[in-house]
Protein 1
Amino acid sequence: MTVIAESIILPERRGTAGRLSDFFWRHPHVLLAVLLGPPLLWLGIVYLGSLFALLLQSFFSIDDFSGLINYEFTLATYRQLLSETNLDIIIRTVTMAAVVTLVSALIAFPIAYYAARYARGKWKVLFYLGVMLPLWSSYLVKIYAWKLVLAKEGIVTWFFEKLNLLWLLDAWLALPVVGGNSLSVSYTGTFVVFVYVWMPFMILPIQAALERVPSNLIEASSDLGGTPAQTFRYVLFPLALPGIVAGSIFTFSLTLGDYIIPQIIGSSRLFIGQAVYAQQGTAGNIPLAAAFTVVPIVIMGLYLWMAKRMGAFDAL
Amino acid sequence: MRSEKSNRAPLSLKIAAAAGLAFMHLPILLIFLYAFTTEEKSYQFPPPGLTTQWFGVAWDRPDVWAALALSVKVASIATATALVLGTLCAAAISQTRFFGRETISLLVILPIALPGIITGIALRSAFSMADIPFSFWTIVLGHATFCIVVVYNNAVARFRRISGSLIEASMDLGADGFQTFRYVILPNIGTALLAGGMLAFALSFDEVIVTTFTAGQQSTLPIWMLEELIRPRQRPVTNVVAMIVVVVTFLPILGAYYLTRDGDQIAGASK
């Protein structure tokens, strides 16, 4: 009996590593703490700590005369945020983000649909890499490429000239709001670059959602007499919607916070990101900059909550 | 299976998909053309002539080399930090069940879910409050924070595929926890970590929004690019650098794809 018992209950391991290993086995909570400790400390202190410190500053105000921060709780900064010029910036940014998201979905859907339904084998890989490479290639290089494209002496003007359609381009630029001196200093330019840079984020979530639609559902729909348009409208689109919403989280959030694209390609009218940048930099008004950052956080919070209700997170 | 007809895409869909892909690729291809242009003062299209002299000029520019070296150093250290922290976090989340799991996975994703400018300005004001001067390490600190999620996503997907019985078998055969990690877990998650590391490197190498807030006087390659974009000094050199950046960032993406293509979730599917 004793022999068996001894061989079942192993002797303790020797050495520090062995003893440590036994200790972790007996105390899984300690192991969990050791595993989670470093990343949580990092994210908790470095990231959340700075974030809360920033948000806290939005409740301070800046002294108009000395330009120093007045460390007293006040809502004055938020009142300033809701002034007409600042509201204008917020509305402009949110509108831009919404339009960019819609157009991105329109461009991304056919690509995702083709890749999910029809592309096979080699084509599937080609489509995948064709989406991945632009998605991951350098953000600044992409903007730079558009500076080349949209420049007055660039390829777009050349193209319109060759087609004898230069009058069309000029007519578009003469329009209010979307027009400007040239494409690279107009809203049209800003919009095109936003779509270009953020649209690839939309494709893979839509593709993932479409790939999960069983093909017999489509067949059932057409067997029951649905035209392709009806099948799309009542079967495919509702099932793909969580994927579209998942992708729109990226396009919307990234457009909302961007300050480099409108600075390089666009008019002088500010977006939220630029306002934050200007307030913390040249103006030195950290409380107002902090209050400005609350806007995208609140909007994204609402957006994520809505997306979660629509089941978008399962499509990520 | 139905007839052949349903397996062929409608022409309109083909055109829309092809146009979409062309829209994504043509501007990048244009960069390759502009790297060879003889035009110095403007972005004239079509280029008046082609030359390779700008590659030599860019090669001799010390500021480009300094920016490149700083970028590589920052990306290496940020990637190494993110690999350790991301793997630890992924192991804890996937191998155990505990209260608050969902919150932690949300916390990991937050640095890239919120706009980069928020991360950037939050770090900057925290540094100034704590009187930390801007240095190489403040850049690394910011980069590592948003690189964790890339490693984490890859590692978590792979951890899900390792069956628990493998680990139990190793323990039953007398291996201690460290041996199990070294000989059973690590070989299984190795390629996922490598892919995650490559993507984290690419992300850090390219990052500009957070970096503008956490770098002092130093410029990484993206900061150098940004300055050239705002105030162009020598356009042809910028063209050449842009082209090289495109080529260099493609390599880790292709590498990460080939390392994880057999998996259930391919690396980089979400940035």
Protein 2
Amino acid sequence: MKTILYVIQKEFIQVKRNKTMLRMIVMIPLLQMLVLVFAATYDLKNVNIYLIDKDLSSTSRQLASKLDASPFFTINNTSFNPEDGEKELLKNKDHIALVIPQGFERDLIREDKASLQLLVNAIDGQAAQLAYSYANSVIRDFNKNIIAEWKGLPEFNPPYKIETTSRFWYNSELEYKWYMAPGVLAILVTLIGLFLSGMSLVKEKELGTIEQLNVTPIKKIQFLTGKLVPFIVIALFDLSFGLLIARLVFNLPIVGNLGLVFGFGALYLLGILGLGLFISTVADTQQQVMFVTYFFMMIFILMGGIFTPVDSMPHWAQLFDECNPVYHFMKIMRMVVLKGSGFGDLIHEFVALCIIGATFLALALWRYKKTA
Amino acid sequence: MKTNSKNKASQHVSQNPLSRRGLEEASISIQNINKSYGPVQALQNISLEINRGELFGLIGPDGAGKSTLMRILMTLLFQDSGTATMNGLDVVKDYKKIRKIVGYMPGRFSLYQDLTVEENLNFFATVFNTSITENYDLIKDIYIQIEPFKSRLAGKLSGGMKQKLALSCALIHKPEILVLDEPTTGVDAVSRKEFWEMLKKLQEKGITILVSTPYMDEAMLCTRVALMQKGKVLDVNTPQKLVENYDRKLYAIRSDDMHRLIQDLRSWEKTDTAYAFGQFLHVTGKADETEACEFENYLLKKEHRELQVFDIPPTIEDVFMNMMNE
């Protein structure tokens, strides 16, 4: 016991003396929370429209100004040649080209219908969908008002209609930042835990200190515990730091029990640190650890559902995610922080994290040999 | 296959009463150890007996297998075949017990550079379940020298200081056997001398010491030495005996143009070896009766000026050079 305490103390002293590491521990949560959460947003803003108005009628101008007035769209450029619009799409300067054909107003009045062409840059399918449906709804609205105007009614309302009132639960204002913040926190904890633990073990290999330690009667479990505890503490510190930033800056509502967040955090970290230690028992240099760790991080995070819902992934990916600790932890974070889920709602995740953690730790313990 | 050869080795030991007796007396007993790294045979059938309380030196150039042998003894590496015991404990089976009774100083400085002198000592003391005060007697002489710097980071110490700290850490648990892998490489001459004086004192306290070094002058300070080359032990003896046993005639030769001198000597059919030793060349003839005057006449013919040729007694280095050539 005394040995473990001393090993832990030694690890803390080393972190304390490592200026770069100290800076990382403070700067990473700050940057991630303040930059990533804002950047990783699906709120659609600033869609540039290239307008090709061949009609130049009052109706076409009305439509154009309505689009321009919406907070999502800006009419960036106009011309009479559709090819110019295509060029701008190619240059990525504009996202949508709207072609209003000649005789738009005339057709609308004489034949009660007219057509428009909407060219959408769909490289990013999701954004294109959004931009399209936003534009569509603006045009539909415009359409409705035109009909009303001509018929001399205040607003056109069809005789029958099903009324839908919707309420958004848990995030009633559809604040995207609130959805992202717990996810980014999960990434933060993963990053800190995985890299710090992996680096610290392989550093002993690189400097040869492990050789001196291997000939001592220190037990594997003592040594590895000494590597686990300090980094769990540091990562949990960063978790609370990140939560504090989210609370103060984004006004993130923390509905659930904080104890549950940290309890699951510690359990999750055991697994993640186990993986980090396992990687560093296999690798010989810090470079190799960086490489392999980065690979695992990418897969875990991208498959973990930070940006894309796991439910819409293919079946095999969903099966894989059962062994992805980041997936479980991200889910837990969102459920507890935003919804206030209790332990009873998280039994499945609890069992999964226990199994994953035990596996990674066992691997690390098995692979760490006190002989070369 | 592997277990077979191991069995054979142990049978061999039990059949031979002499080596069994050696096992009981010796502090470190090495029997037919082999170790290869891929195609490279690092150790070839090494057998050595090191007595209790000896200051035993492994002497040899880089790549002779000294470190590999030490790492096997320190339970950090498995041998391919053969057995070794440390105070009667098998290096494979009893590795846990061995780690409690041995102190090890690896060739590379392996303490925590970002911990202070005192923190390093405390750390290793704790890991060995002891404390600095408990075994202070043993390390006192050494620790006193580094105590003024006890709050300095180990990485900021000078080479000699680092070695003293490493030695203190290796001694903190009062080991019965001390294994030092090239402890004086990269250390200044004064610190080297001090270091060997410390080893002598530790030997007087009854600790068996196995030390490796590439420096021949240090070999003379050992009780006994083993000369190693390319994974083989060439000879084991006291350094004095090794020198006495050298039965060839040795000449020291110098002239005003040393470079041409060594070339002329090496190209002469009567010269066996010619090596530069400081200001002189140490030269042996093919036939040991080659006289000093023969060398002198040959070299005068080659127009060497300020020529000096005289007999010298051999040093351990001459012995080693001679053995390497055989």
